[in-house]
């Protein structure tokens, strides 16, 4: 096997790995966007709870039925949900940073292999 075909095979493998990284990066970005949306919705609910009086009726949709819920319990549920979303945002952010770093490194590796491949091709001609 010539050194040209070895470099070509490495280049192909690195390109496939880069495509996989890009796919995972896209999934992580979509996940981050979903979390942002959920966080905004829950923040809005939390703000609405602050505006309600102590005697306000709060209902939670459980399946097809609205069930009355205590304001303190509902506010606590929203706070817990916001805490959970915040921790998940941190996890996804770390994942995004890691995938971005790996992607940039892989891009550099591919560029290096492309230059090596071009050099080998010009030497053979």
Give an overview in words.
With 125 residues, the chain is mainly alpha-helical. It has a single domain (3-124), classed as Helix Hairpins (Orthogonal Bundle), CATH 1.10.287.370. Helix content is 82%, strand content 8%. The protein has a two-stranded antiparallel ribbon with strand order 1-2. Helix 1 (3-51) packs antiparallel against helix 2. The two termini are 18 Å apart.
Which features does this protein show?
single chain, 125 residues, mainly alpha, Helix Hairpins, two-stranded antiparallel ribbon, 2 helices, 8% strand, rod-shaped, coiled coil, unfolded protein binding, Prefoldin, PFD_beta-like
Describe the structure concisely for a colleague:
This protein is mainly α and 125 residues long. The protein has helices at residues 3-51, 71-124, and strands at residues 58-62, 65-69.
H/E series = HEEH
For this structure, the quaternary state is single chain
For the biggest sheet, the summary is: 2 strands, antiparallel
Q: What's the CATH topology label?
A: Helix Hairpins
Strand content: 5-15%
How many extended strands?
2
Overall residue-averaged pLDDT value: 93
Helix percentage = over 70%
Sequence stretches where pLDDT stays below 50 over 5 or more residues: none
State the secondary-structure class: mainly alpha
Note the overall shape: rod-shaped
- Using the 3D structure, state the CATH architecture: Orthogonal Bundle
Strand ordering within the main sheet: 1-2
How many domains, in number, for the residues?
Answer: 1
Radius of gyration: 26 Å
Distance between the termini: 18 Å
Protein name: Prefoldin
Organism: Absidia repens
Pfam families: Prefoldin_2
GO molecular function: protein-folding chaperone binding; unfolded protein binding
């Amino acid at each position: 096997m010539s050194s040209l075909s070895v470099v070509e095979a490495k280049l192909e493998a690195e390109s496939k790995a880069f495509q996989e990284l890009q796919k995972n990066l896209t999934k992580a970005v979509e996940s981050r966007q979903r979390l942002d949306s959920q966080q905004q919705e829950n923040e809005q609910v939390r703000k609405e709870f602050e505006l309600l009086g102590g005697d306000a009726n709060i209902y939670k949709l459980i399946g097809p039925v609205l069930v009355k819920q205590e304001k303190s319990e509902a506010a606590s549920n929203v706070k817990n949900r916001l805490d959970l979303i915040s921790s998940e945002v941190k996890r996804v952010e770390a994942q995004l940073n890691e995938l971005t770093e790996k992607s940039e490194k892989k891009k550099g590796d591919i560029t290096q292999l492309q230059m090596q491949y071009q050099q080998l091709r010009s030497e053979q001609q």
